[in-house]
Amino acid sequence: MRRLAPLVPILPLVLAAGCSPALNWRKVDPEGAQVSLMFPCKPEREERTQPGPAGQPVVVRSMSCKARGGQFSFTWTDLGDARATSAAMRRMHDGIARQMAPGASAPLGVRGIAVDPEAFQQAFEARPGQPAQQVRQAVFSREGRLYQLLLQGERLDAEAWDVFLGSVQLPL
Length: 172
Hints:
Radius of gyration: 20 Å
Structural class: alpha+beta
Distance between the termini: 58 Å
Largest sheet: 7 strands, antiparallel
Helix content: 10-25%
Order of helices and strands: HEEEEEHEEEEH
Oligomer: single chain
């Protein structure tokens, strides 16, 4: 035991160097989103312009990263009109549903979101004959801002999705 005593102080460092966590959760406050959330990895930010309601251009911003075989994404835009968000959320859902088989859905538990029947979370699976793919989607809005969270990959971690979605905080 005395021969091992000099190694005891460095043993935790050696063990920690041999492994790294697959999910390294960090709080992110995306500029202009008026929301904070946790990502399991360092997200990269993208921005693009596309047609919005009544053909007016809107800037769509997103952050995403890959960890533990899944891609975690958060997308948001300001439609400028709270009345336009329901139709936009429906289009977001329908876009995935045309490509994949819809599975279980559930209401959202995000405090401060607009009460809207189009706000939801849903699971999707690849259709028969397609490569293995799973997607979890949540869409919601607040004051004309439209938000979407996605987790996609071959096999998803349900606990990671719960942490990702449960971390969303809107200012009161």
